């Protein structure tokens, strides 16, 4: 049975369809159209692109397929330019649909190209990594990285549909699967203590990738994300910023250590631990959440500290965060399990002192 999660945005409502096996029958769920461009990466493309394109041909008059190199380095201006050129060569127009088939990199890049080509064409997200299934494919944030800052150029461009097949996670490599779990833990800490407990009690089943558990876990994450996105689609009120828990530190880690050195979820795991340590140090949250979060992240084999001390570089990179307002760095910090707030960051000395425990220096 599928789980359907509505994303009730007034201007662009859509549904997240979660079902084991849905990838094998996409054409049954997508509307007929004249032209689809299936964009994937070399790794995911090898596994699924041919079958997906064949299936889509049942309802789409012309199906083209494009592959980009696997990895975060593809979220670049150069790769976006190459895709725009390919779309021109393939006769893409406003009746075409971009189908993003892959993990977060594919979804963000293909989504950005869909948002910008011909001032915007339809987008369907088919996420194949855990991270993309629980976070990046939902909510319309698409974009590319600059050398100085992660996700610095982008758009809000909602997909027409998100189709999630938890069955594909069976073959996802261990490191990428584990990395995605960081975003799963995030939802528990920021919004839903019962979900945090659910995860704490199911570490073994999470490890064994039990399909029913995965479907339930992904559906809960999508429900929570949809709730936030509907309240604050364009991150104006500050509500959506809570989804960035750990991300100010995490994006800085990705930038400073070089894109791809840490997978996004790995950097977010360390970033969340830096955030909770800081919150505990300044008395914003009780110490027990710090220990509880660390325990769960470690149980799930996620990293919680950096091997060396690059705190000054990290602090500098954090100033490029999109939540900086009038020169003031703002951070999402936990107040208690299931509740976070966006607050003005404390003094640099306090941040540095707190970060010391999550770096090689501590
Ligand atoms: N990944 C954070 C957001 O979608 O707002």
Please name the defining characteristics of this protein.
362 residues, alpha/beta, Rossmann fold, Dehydroquinate synthase-like, alpha domain, 2 domains, two-stranded antiparallel sheet, 11 strands, 44% helix, globular, binds glycine
Q: List SSEs in N-to-C order.
A: EEEHEHEHEHEEEHHHHHHHHEEH
CATH architecture type of the largest domain: Up-down Bundle
Largest sheet: 7 strands, mixed
Tell me the CATH superfamily of the largest domain.
Dehydroquinate synthase-like - alpha domain
Q: Structural class per helix/strand content?
A: alpha/beta
DSSP E strands, number: 11
Radius of gyration, whole Å? 20 Å
Give the overall silhouette: globular
Give a quick precis of the structure.
This protein has 362 residues and is an alpha/beta fold.
Q: In terms of topology, how is this protein built?
A:
Blueprint: E1 3-7, E2 14-18, E3 33-41, H1 42-56, E4 60-68, H2 77-89, E5 96-102, H3 104-116, E6 122-127, H4 130-136, E7 141-144, E8 153-156, E9 161-164, H5 174-191, H6 193-200, H7 203-207, H8 211-231, H9 247-257, H10 264-281, H11 287-299, H12 311-318, E10 330-336, E11 339-344, H13 348-355
Parallel strand pairs: 2-9, 3-4, 3-5, 5-6, 6-9
Antiparallel strand pairs: 1-2, 7-8, 10-11
Glycine binds at residues 135, 139, 141, 240, 243-244.
Account of the 3D structure:
This protein is an alpha/beta fold and 362 residues long. The protein has two domains: 3-169, 3-Layer(aba) Sandwich (Rossmann fold); 174-358, Dehydroquinate synthase-like, alpha domain (Up-down Bundle), CATH 1.20.1090. It has helices spanning 42-56, 77-89, 104-116, 130-136, 174-191, 193-200, 203-207, 211-231, 247-257, 264-281, 287-299, 311-318, 348-355, and strands at residues 3-7, 14-18, 33-41, 60-68, 96-102, 122-127, 141-144, 153-156, 161-164, 330-336, 339-344. Strand 7 (141-144) and strand 8 (153-156) form a beta hairpin. Helix 4 (130-136) runs parallel beside helix 8.
């Amino acid at each position: 049975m599928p789980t359907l999660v509505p994303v009730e945005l007034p201007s662009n409502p859509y549904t997240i369809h979660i079902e084991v096996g849905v990838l094998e029958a996409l054409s049954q769920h997508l509307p007929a159209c004249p032209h689809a461009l299936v964009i994937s990466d070399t790794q995911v493309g090898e596994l699924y692109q041919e079958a997906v394109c064949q299936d889509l041909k049942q309802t789409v008059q012309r199906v083209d397929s494009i592959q980009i190199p696997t990895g975060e380095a593809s979220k670049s201006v150069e790769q976006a330019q190459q895709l725009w050129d390919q779309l021109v060569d393939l006769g893409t127009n406003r009746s075409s649909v971009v189908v993003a088939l892959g993990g977060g990199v594919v979804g963000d890049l293909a989504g950005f190209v869909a948002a910008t080509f011909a001032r915007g064409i339809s987008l369907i997200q088919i996420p194949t990594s855990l991270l993309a299934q629980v976070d990046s494919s939902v909510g319309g944030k698409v974009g590319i990285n600059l050398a100085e800052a992660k996700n610095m150029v982008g758009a809000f461009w909602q997909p027409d549909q998100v189709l999630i097949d938890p069955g594909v996670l069976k073959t996802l490599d261990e490191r990428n699967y584990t990395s995605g779990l960081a975003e799963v833990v995030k939802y528990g800490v920021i919004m839903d203590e019962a979900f945090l407990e659910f995860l704490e009690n199911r570490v073994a089943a999470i490890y064994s990738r039990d399909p029913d558990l995965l479907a339930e876990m992904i559906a809960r994450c999508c429900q929570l994300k949809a709730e936030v996105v509907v309240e604050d689609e364009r991150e104006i009120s500050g509500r959506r910023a809570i989804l960035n828990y750990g991300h100010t530190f995490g994006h800085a880690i990705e930038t400073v250590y070089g894109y791809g050195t840490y997978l996004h979820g790995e950097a977010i795991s360390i970033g969340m631990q830096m955030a909770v340590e800081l919150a505990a140090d300044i008395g914003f949250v009780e110490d027990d959440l710090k220990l509880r979060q660390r325990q769960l992240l470690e149980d799930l084999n996620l990293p919680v500290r950096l091997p060396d001390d690059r705190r000054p570089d990290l602090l500098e990179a954090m100033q490029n965060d999109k939540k900086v307002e009038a020169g003031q760095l703002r951070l999402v910090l936990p107040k208690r399990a299931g509740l976070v707030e966006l607050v003005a960051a404390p003094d640099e000395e306090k941040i540095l002192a707190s970060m010391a425990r999550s770096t090689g220096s501590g």
